Amino acid sequence: MHVPDGFLDAPTSIGTGVVAALAVGVALRAARRELDDRTAPLAGLVAAFVFATQMITFPVGAGTSGHLLGGALTAVLVGPFTGVLCLSVVFLVQSLLFADGGITALGTNIDLMGVVTVSVGWLVFRGLQAVLPRRLSVVAPAAAVAALVSVPAAAAVFVVLYAVGGTADIPLDTLTGAMVGVHVLIGIGEAVITFLAVASIVAVRPDLVHGARRVLARRELEIRPTSAGVSA
Questions:
Q1: CATH assignment of 10-222, among 3.40.50.1220, 1.10.1760.20, 1.10.540.10, 3.40.50.2300
Q2: What DSSP letter does each residue of 119-131 carry, written as one string?
């Protein structure tokens, strides 16, 4: 989904750049509430993991390939604000060093693959946590569903941006069908990767997973001291 230079006109690219800058600014301040001495190193590892896995593509049919976006994954592992920062760094490095996504489209790519996927993924994940049992076994499946929804959501937002300032001669209905349809398939791959990554970390260190904190906090509240002073 990396948008190249020139695919959107200058006013639209400037607008998305302003939105991205504001989002990163908010994330810089809010991420302080999500990170501590234990989870801060995980943020770097998550950014490196997303960067590496985005270099690996998988076929989705008709000669089209997809790759991990990582919005829901980063939101669940390190928190939504820290997730935006991790992905912004990834897209910046990809744009400047690997020509993966245009430099003038950097704001657009941060908005689509960072802000939108993180926001939608986190909202879906928290919504599922609110209605499903609060168990550690639910964290990874909820993250997978969040990842599945976040990818076509980002594709739909791209279509909106194209309708506002697209420069290519592509019919809007054709673009909508292609983008949303293909990215539903990509979302399935994203869900599988997200499930495996989150489940593996929850299995060994659930305390490091931001999305598991409420489950762990509920467990601690359910512990009752006995008269002998031993937790039961």
A1: 1.10.1760.20
A2: HHHHHHHHHHHHH
